[in-house]
Write a structure and sequence with these properties.
The chain is an alpha/beta fold and about 600 residues long. The chain has 13 helices and 31 strands. Strand 27 (about 530-540) and strand 28 form a beta hairpin.
């Protein structure tokens, strides 16, 4: 295998030759592996069709080390109908899996469905995700779309991750080394600059080898501004996914590129959480729901496959295109626990993908998800990369913050009320309750901001039950600033109703609430009625619609994020410390080695279902 330096040089030469020197310069792939079909006569007559291997994954979120707790397992359905949890993930294993998969495939492309960075554990997040970009370069990623989390630090920082250069505030992290940026293009077809109206990065790229040409169009979900802080999307416009993909599919078609893959950072929910669930049983597309189903049905037949993400789910589904032809729609869960292997059969005469046999067979599927198991050999270059960055992070990452007596589940909890959500909300209330800190009487935490579990027996050598700064950072990596605002009782009730109505009706976002607030959530009802308003109590008293309440929340919620317009209507704002600072302060104040913190009870929301 050639060195990373040689790969980088060769890719840049090919990109320049294609005349695509933009912020998202084309990554010309130099893969290994594949098969051709046909009656070739020696080396001078190429076969009519060529099998192009498409390896894909999504939502890595900077998880370089194996994710801990339930976030680091994959559910596998067994032959007897039971399920088994299999440890998975970590770039040492992801790199090994992808490299092994490429063997025997001279035509192989590796693509990603967005959220490669953002909401990352401390090992990557502390360094503004430079370690993850470096790892993806070594993995030989060919192309990715942007996801919503690529905008966590704004378009300028995203451009730096693409083009390189040291951080404008913190500088270079290693003496004598300048961050070189991504060797692969980030695509952002539906994200435009408000002033120029042009995409902020390349809208598409074309992979070429021996006359085979496959175009890739990349989009993120149109609703990105609703789930990213206002500063992260300032000056940007996000456009309809279907309209954008169809626009650039036509453009590629006019250029003679007939084989097209859409990388879409939006997804769905399969009927089963098992990665090996048959998504097409009993019928095409019946096994999946959510936004991607309508998107897939609206995207032009010119597009031959959809690689998706965002929902962190695993699925390989066939959803008919608008012409009624079968088309693969895939997602590989999250955190590098799975990768998808799809065969694109390229017809040299038509220059298009043959989709007549898209369903394949159980023995030889056209597309399948594979577990990134931890019982295989580690990729030594990834081990070295992790060790190097861990050495730089160690002085901060290893600092103890508190002690727990058992796992406190957050991301790994499927219940509306999560133990770790209660803990975080209580920490925010305690930190913002003093009169000089805001005078908060209640706190809300968005569930999507809880990125992991607090695991009692974590990896490393800190000792069972010790919560290090690295672990607490992994739970709350955004370091959002805390806000305290005035809301009326009527606005408080509206906020609770918005959890299960409006944009959140199909996929509820249940706020995590601080102690003292209680209510009943009736899931047998629909829309806002699911929140039983006459059960809402704060410290035992009914909410007065006309009364003003001081409410603590992070700046994302205070900006109306996640569809909570009522929370965005707050007045008399006071800005406090970061959510991470309050979380760590609470751990320190409420736990010791001899008296560790126990998982909080989940008795604030009464669920009827």
């Amino acid at each position: 295998m050639s060195s990373p330096q040689k790969n980088r040089a060769s890719r840049r030469v090919l990109a320049a030759a294609a005349g695509l020197a933009t912020a998202g310069a084309l990554v010309a792939a130099m893969p290994a592996g594949a098969q051709a079909h046909g009656k070739g006569h020696g080396h001078h007559t190429p076969a009519r069709t060529v099998d192009v291997q498409l390896l894909s994954f999504n939502d890595l979120h900077g998880n370089l080390e194996p994710p801990a707790g339930s976030a680091g397992t994959v559910t596998e359905k067994q032959a007897d109908g039971t399920t088994k949890a299999i440890p998975a993930g970590g770039v040492e294993y992801l790199a090994s899996s992808l490299r092994a998969a490429r063997k025997g495939h001279p035509y192989s492309i590796t693509a990603a469905g967005g959220d490669m960075v953002g909401a990352s554990p401390l090992l990557s997040g502390l360094f503004h995700d430079e370690p993850t970009i470096e790892a993806l370069n070594k993995i030989d990623l060919d192309v990715t779309t942007v996801g919503n989390h690529e905008f966590d630090e704004g378009a300028t920082e995203l451009a730096r991750l693409q083009n390189g250069g040291c951080h404008p505030v913190e500088g270079c992290y290693e003496q004598g080394k300048t961050f070189e940026g991504a060797d692969f293009p980030y695509l952002a077809a539906n994200v435009t600059d408000e002033k120029t109206g042009k995409p902020i990065l390349k809208p598409y790229t074309v992979w070429k080898k021996n006359g085979v040409k496959i175009g890739f169009i990349g989009v993120t979900l149109e609703g990105t501004p609703n789930i990213v802080t206002a500063n992260g999307v300032k000056g940007l416009k996000f456009h309809d996914e279907i309209e954008t993909v169809n626009k650039y599919a036509k453009e590629l078609d006019r250029q003679g590129v007939k084989s097209i893959v859409a990388l879409i950072h939006e997804g769905g929910a399969p009927a089963s959480s098992s990665y090996n669930y048959n998504c097409d049983s009993p019928g095409a597309g019946d096994g999946i729901s959510g936004p991607i189903t309508d998107i897939a049905k609206g995207i032009s037949p010119k597009v031959d496959a959809l690689v998706t993400g965002h929902t962190h789910q695993a699925y390989v589904c066939t959803i008919p295109d608008p012409a009624g032809n079968p088309r693969m729609v895939t997602s590989a869960a999250s955190f590098g626990k799975l990768y998808t292997d799809t065969t694109l059969t390229y017809d040299r005469r038509t220059k298009d993908i043959v989709r007549t046999a898209v369903k394949g067979s159980a023995a030889n599927p056209v597309s399948a998800n594979h577990i990134v198991t931890r019982d295989q050999a580690k990729a030594t270059d990834m081990t070295d990369l992790i060790a190097r960055w861990n050495t730089l992070a160690a002085p901060i990452a290893s600092r103890p913050q508190g002690f727990i007596s058992a796992d406190i589940n957050g991301r790994g909890s499927t219940a509306p009320e999560k133990p770790l959500g209660n803990l975080i909300a209580d920490a925010q209330l305690e930190g913002m309750a003093p009169a000089d800190k805001g005078g908060a009487v209640v706190a809300f935490m968005n569930p999507g901001g809880i990125r992991a579990d607090l695991v009692y027996k974590a990896t490393g050598s800190e000792g069972d039950g010790v919560v290090t700064y690295g672990e607490s950072f992994t739970v709350q990596p955004f370091t959002n600033m805390m806000n305290v605002v005035d809301l009326t009782g009527a606005q408080l009730v509206s906020a609770l109703q918005q959890q299960v109505s409006g944009s959140n009706e199909a996929s509820p976002k249940i706020l995590q609430i601080s102690r003292g607030l209680t209510y009943t959530l009736d899931l047998t009802k629909t829309g806002a009625a699911r929140v039983v308003t006459d059960t809402i109590r704060l410290n035992g008293e009914a909410i007065d619609p006309a009364k003003s309440y001081r409410v603590a929340m992070n700046e994302f919620l205070a900006g109306g994020g996640d569809g909570f317009a009522a929370l965005g209507a707050g007045t008399n704002k006071l800005v406090g410390p970061s959510d991470l600072d309050l979380f760590n302060a609470y751990l320190a104040a409420h736990s010791t080695a001899s008296a560790p913190l126990a998982p909080p009870a989940t008795d604030r929301i009464t669920v009827v279902q």
